[in-house]
Design a protein that fits this description.
Length: about 120
């Protein structure tokens, strides 16, 4: 039971991370879903991995909110749905980036407080 609680806490901690990473990747180039899954794994030094089952719903929500747009495009004889960031998505990315930097800075300070002789 403790393992399940730890996993749930870890998942809750990561809420919002897929949205941030998807928008960041799409700000660099247009991508299709599985390409985004692989890119997240690679760009995070293999420390984060999100299954397609969480990335596709994230893409759908972002599209419904107007932060990304999709289009069909042929790739190696197959038709894939490619996603691109919109101006609204760029603004959302800037907002989320600022929020996550504040969280990171706060956690970093708290974790290192004992090392600096602070308690």
């Amino acid at each position: 039971m403790k393992k399940e609680a730890a996993k749930k806490a870890s998942q809750n901690f990561l809420n919002g991370v897929p949205i941030l990473l998807v928008l960041k990747l799409l700000s660099e180039k247009e991508m299709y879903g599985y390409e985004i899954v692989r890119a997240i794994h690679e760009k995070t030094g293999r420390s984060l991995s999100f299954p397609e089952g969480s990335i596709y719903p994230t893409l759908h929500v972002l599209e419904e909110d107007g932060h990304v747009k999709s289009r069909e495009k042929a790739h190696n004889g197959r038709t894939r749905l490619y996603y691109a960031i919109t101006p609204s998505g760029t603004k959302k990315l800037e907002q989320l980036t600022g929020e996550w930097r504040k969280v990171f800075q706060g956690v970093h300070l708290a974790l290192d407080a004992g090392k600096a002789g602070l308690s």
